[in-house]
Amino acid sequence: MMKEIETRIKEVVKDLFTQNKIDLFIGYSKGSLPLTSSPCFITKSEDIEKLVWNSFCSNNLAVYLPRIFNPQPRKKEKIELPRIGILAKGCDARSIVVLIKEHQIARDNVFILGIVCQGMGDRKKIRNDIEITGAEEKNGRITIVDENKKEIELKREELLSDCCIECQHATPPIHDILIESGNQRPAAPKGGGRDFEKKSIEDRWNLFQEEISKCIRCYACRQACPNCYCRECFADQTKPRWIGVTDHISDVMFYQIGRIFHQAGRCVDCGACVRACPMGIDLRVFTHKLVRDAKELFDYEAGVFLEEGLLLATFKPEDKQEFISEP
Amino acid sequence: MHKRVLVVGGGIAGIQASLDLAEMGVEVFLLEKGPSIGGRMAQLDKTFPTNDCAMCILSPKLVEAAAHPNIKIIANAELKSLDGEIPNFRAKILKKPRYIDEEKCTGCAICMSKCPVKIPDEYNKGLSKTKCMRIPFPQAVPALPIMDRESCIYHQRGKCRICEKFCEADAIDFDQKEESIDVEVGSVIFASGSEEFDAAIKDEYGYKTFPNVLTSIEFERILSASGPTEGHITRPSDGKEPRRIAFIQCVGSRDMQMGNEYCSSVCCMQAVKDSVIVKEHLPGVEATIFFMDIRAFGKDFDKFVNRAKDDYHTRFIRARISAVEIDPATENLIIQYNSEAGSLIEENFDLVVLSVGLLSTAGIRKMAARFDIEINACGFARTSSFTPMTASRPGIFIAGTFSGPKDIPETVMQASGAASAAASLLTELPIRELREELPQEFDLRGEQIRTGVFVCRCGINIAATVDVPGVVEYASALQGVVHSQEFIFACAQDSQKLIGEKIKELKLNRVIVSACTPRTHELLFQKTLSSSGLNPYLFEFVNIREQCSWVHQKEQEKATEKAKDLVRMAATKAGLLEPLSRMSLKVNKGALIIGGGVAGMVASLELSTQGYEVFLVEKESELGGNLRHVHYTLEGEKTDRFLKSLIAKVKKDDNIQLYIDSEIREIMGYVGNFHTKIGNGKQTTNNKPRELEHGVVIVATGGEEYQPSEYLYGRDERIITQRELEERLTKQQSAIDKLGSIVMIQCVGSRNGQYPYCSRVCCSQAIKNALKLKEINPEVNVYMLYRDIRTYGLKELYYKKAREKGVIFIRYEEGEEPQIEAQNSKSEQQASNGEVLVKAYDPILQRNLVINADLVVLSSAIRARKENKILSQMLKVPLNADGFFLEAHVKLRPVDFATDGIFVCGLAHYPKDVSETICQAKAASARAVTILRKDEIEAEGRVSQIRKERCSGCGLCIEICPYTAIELEEGERVAIVNEALCKGCGACAASCRSAAIDLKGFKDEQILAALSVV
Amino acid sequence: MMDKNFEPRIVAFLCNWCSYAGADLAGVSRIQYPTNVRIIRLPCSGRINPLYIVKALQNGVDGVLVSGCHPGDCHYISGNLVAGRKFALLKNFLVHLGIEPERVQFSWVSASEGPRFAQIVKKVVNEVKEIGPIEKMVKRL
Ligand code: SF4
Ligand code: SF4
Ligand code: SF4
Ligand code: FES
């Protein structure tokens, strides 16, 4: 299946270039390590062969769009916007919807090649005592080769990322062409901090503290998130200064709470921040709380409907009032 | 002399009229006979149908009226005589003594707390006690005490004078006398209101004999958190929470015995609202409303009633209650009623609320007679449908319930309309200009922070609890503070002078006053700053009275600590305050009026009279709108004649540019500066410009008649609409007078699942036409199938008349709509004695009826126009769920939109009759003139501000701003704020993730600074 | 943890038009309530950036009370409704992270609800007293 999709992608991209519909295509190429792939920017049809499609095309490619459309620093003269083709799984496409709604993308200038996603793998799910020297994917099975050239066969399902296991939107809600990928995976309602939520308040706090104390404020999470396109992040501002420039855990917490809260109604649960974090912090335990609450309290899912207002700019008469303390 | 108007009555009608006039540049004398303005609305808990807190929305208006330089409030006073005529009326006013010197009194209320005599509190309808020396209610305006001479022990027995001892302002004046004030005005508005029916007269209900029978206003006070029970709903006899409450409607209304045949218009909705609120307070309670018809005829009223039924389980029982009995053991109340099926039912209630009507009393009639104001049969000021705010005596206008019962928005509309009418008489006179010359502001650039802190003792109000000298001393050591001192009364004249002197002498560039509440006193101090050359926004107010001394009376040390903390927070914030200026922008004096029906034409003429240029755009090829299809009013006035003369006037008015057969293509801009493109219609009128510049927009696009798809309409010519009937009644009576039996069906297309609203005018229209039919041929049988007869207000008289004339009223329930069978309908050929059979279920007789009808008349709904959608998007103003334009506030801003400079009137807003339309059209013009008459409008000072380099143009703030004050600048794709529209709520600033937009005066850094030293 | 003499420091962000007026009315009516609360007046509950609340905790404030007009009553039409969503999400989020729910509380208080204002202050103060001084989130150097 994967190979067929890959071939189909290449065909489509080829057509786009030959018909001069795009100036740039964003997809995936082979990564430097086994079981990875990297984002790849194609500007001419000769390079199309670099494109790949496999179970590790995890990156949320939407992150590049605001940067291309809104170069920093702001240009005085009006710039000619490039026409971009982009490969979009469910989550990438939802990010694109969010970004269109937030005026960060010129819809007319993007061609969305949607793929019904079967879920992406997470390398971290492989036992970490194995040193992977090679890997091959075939028929829903992944064979890895360890340092002793021993082949280990794994089921694709076992490697799925947490966010993919729970994903409810494998089909891109917006696309110009859609590539089907056979049967749908049933979404499993687990993870995402739900176990965490069951813990006592003290345990939660301790875990939060423990996780956050790993954070080195490298901002890789912010860099990876398509929503973090602010021209000047609150974390960097000086007038007023929201966060002290120290590595005091309270300041780190402030950053994390602030950044994550800023994703309310916008986070599409793509897992980009989790994958980006060099310290292995499972940010999803926190980000997913807001995703869940948006749905439970306001029946709102980010990036699903283009026409829907923004979660934090709208309200309904039936909005729950449970946060109110009655005397 | 400049324009001057006397407004008699300080309820919401008088207040609204005064505010509008004042904004039009008219000097207003607002006369109120009670000690405070506010009227009945000040006593309400919530308002229907939105359940807004009445005081929350009223109190800003009270404060505004008090602060407006064009309004002089004369409270506790009476109009003695009114001589002269337009524009030279001479009014004699008698101001009764309050026994305090208003100049000296600071309103600190220490006298009230010390006064030993308790008297029943009128504000709470006598359900609680207040003092003989008292401020009538906390939000009262003027915020001054008044002494009840009759219960004052000094006045009665020559001993006491305790208040005098404690008054540090030396303001008590036991010897105060009545004072006579003469004013000369150009015209007068009577907004003197009505009275509540005295329920004790109907002794069968046991009011005043049974403790647990209350009137609706008393019950409002009980519901109110500021009422006698602090909002705990208890019944008077034992203080227990009631479990079963009955509301009895029409007490003193629709009651021939009492001589009040009209309907009081507001009681149904008030009872429904109270039933909802009660349920919110006491979830276990069961509320029952005994009614004759539920008159939910206003905008979104029926939805509210449905909500009460479905979500709050209010029981609605259609029955007229003849008596209330008491069970002496429990003091519960027993009500017997006939069920519709005819059986006698008895129920037991813990509390009974009597929905008392509004009425005119002998006193009111006498007053009217004294000032030569004619009254009608019901005792209300006589007006006509076409001049609904004009009294019989020239130069006098009416607003509010003095001309008949009405709810708050209608009162407000009539008040604004009366303001417009009153001002229109005075166009020759100059407006009152109030620009005071302010000294040049100091240049603060490069200056160190130099803060002055002034701490008020408020007599002993603050000083008795807070260690004021301690606070002064503490303040002096704070960063940036170069001066601190105390005052006995910071708000006193000499204190103001001293603050001004200190500012100059010590070059203060920040001022902190630590005293009472900024809500009433901020403006005063800001003025002192301005007149001393300091920007008024370099000011912080610390409230150590309401927040320290009064609420921590027994904890002096802690209260003092808290006061110090608050001063510290303010001083820290003050260091970051910046001088702000109010942006002003030029106002184009033209008005665009969309729609050439009655609403649009009346508004046009009104504006033209006041000297403004009007562009009146009508999409059809003739003027007149829906009124072309109305030929007479319920009251019998001829509409045709009125319409004809209206059209003629509009056509020959030089100030009105008429665009017939034209439509709006585009409207850009904002208040004061709109640009509009008009599309060419079928016939080009002439070479008028198609691109207009104007300062305001009035939406008067009207509504349309619903074309029924039910009841065989359109398939049989014997089935017609009311409009068609009216056409025949005027133009081809011969076709009518032979008919033997006519059936009218009400609520066709109204009050159903898809269109849950009431079209408001159809009941009156049907009755009007039924009466006409009877007039033409008394023998004709007219049946009216209805759900509720909604002849609100004085229209009720015609309902009664129709019954007297033999019109037969048969009720049907939703879901049991009548059925129609047409024999020999057009399609069938046999021409025998073809009849239309109307089948209906009569709930009283409890059986099915079949009526042979020669004609079936459908009272079809009024719909919002579909084009409203496009216009609403162009103007960026909202529609309600039914497609009618949605005003800024359903109670107090019934013709405004949240977006400044745009107004609505007529059917575009909601179905209404011609007199209500005229009212609203005049109201819209009044509101428009408050803008047009200014050469420049001043924006708020505390408005939002963009930091372009941070803004990514995400548009969140744009979507959030309720006033459409922010736009996305297309080129650089950044948000830009239109300061003229921004009201300074700060919702944008609080939402921007990049902190790219901030609210001046409440900036992030200022708030965080205060927060850092809590 | 329970120190009998612990006097928490509470910050209350109040909207000018209803809740601040409600607090004023509590004063005018001489309703006595604990001294612990420090009021910051803002034009509207919609002005409250959620980060202010987090900042207050970081500054060592023991409890935060946010209050605005009842839904429908907002002087700026919808400020409180838009803010309500942020508040609901923030509260749940902070509790999810392990911040005690008592520390951050929201209420709607109208201009005529002086007693309600006093009650809500009492409630917050008592509840925060119960859970003791803030430790979490505070930046102590
Ligand atoms: S990527 Fe990880 S370490 Fe870096 S700032 Fe984000 S959470 Fe902290
Ligand atoms: S919310 Fe902030 S970033 Fe977004 S448009 Fe408004 S000011 Fe710009
Ligand atoms: S402060 Fe309020 S009114 Fe002003 S721009 Fe922002 S959201 Fe609009
Ligand atoms: S003004 Fe009170 S919440 Fe908006």
Rg of chain A from C-alpha positions? 21 Å
* Overall pLDDT score of chain B: 92
Instruction: Tell me the name of the CATH class of the largest domain in chain B.
Output: Alpha Beta
Count of separate structural domains of chain B: 7
Report what the structure shows.
- The complex is a heterotrimer of chains A (327), B (1014) and C (141).
- Chain A folds into 2 domains: 2-122 and 160-325, no CATH class; 123-159, no CATH class.
- In chain A, 31% of the residues lie in helices and 13% in strands.
- Chain A contains 11 helices and 8 strands.
- Chain A has helices at residues 2-18, 64-69, 90-101, 156-159, 162-166, 194-198, 201-214, 220-224, 249-261, 272-276, 284-298; strands at 24-30, 37-42, 84-88, 110-115, 134-138, 141-145, 151-155, 177-179.
- In chain A, strand 3, helix 3 (90-101) and strand 4 (110-115) form a beta-alpha-beta unit.
- Chain B is an alpha/beta fold and 1014 residues long.
- Chain B has 7 domains: 1-96 and 178-194 and 360-433, 3-Layer(bba) Sandwich (FAD/NAD(P)-binding domain), CATH 3.50.50.60; 98-176, no CATH class; 196-359, 3-Layer(bba) Sandwich (FAD/NAD(P)-binding domain); 451-574, Rossmann fold; 586-694 and 871-924, FAD/NAD(P)-binding domain (3-Layer(bba) Sandwich); 705-863, FAD/NAD(P)-binding domain (3-Layer(bba) Sandwich), CATH 3.50.50; 940-1012, Alpha-Beta Plaits (2-Layer Sandwich).
- Helix content of chain B is 26%, strand content 24%.
- In chain B, strand 27, helix 13 (518-531) and strand 28 form a beta-alpha-beta unit.
- In chain B, helix 15 (556-574) runs antiparallel to helix 25 (1004-1012) and helix 19 packs parallel to helix 20.
- Chain C is of the alpha/beta class and 141 residues long.
- Chain C has one domain (10-131): Rossmann fold (3-Layer(aba) Sandwich), CATH 3.40.50.
- Chain C is 40% helix and 16% strand.
- Chain C has 4 helices and 4 strands; from the N terminus they run E-H-E-H-E-H-E-H.
- Chain C has helices spanning 19-28, 50-58, 79-97, 114-131; strands spanning 10-15, 37-42, 63-68, 104-108.
- A 4-stranded parallel beta sheet of chain C has the order 2-1-3-4, sandwiched between helices.
- In chain C, strand 1 (10-15), helix 1 (19-28) and strand 2 form a beta-alpha-beta unit.
- In chain C, helix 1 packs across helix 4.
- The longest helix of chain C is centred in the middle third of the chain and has 19 residues, at 79-97.
- Chain C is globular.
- The two termini of chain C are 22 Å apart.
- Chains in contact: A-B, A-C, B-C.
- Residues 15, 17-18, 44-46, 68-69, 74-76, 79-80 of chain C line the site of FE2/S2 (inorganic) cluster.
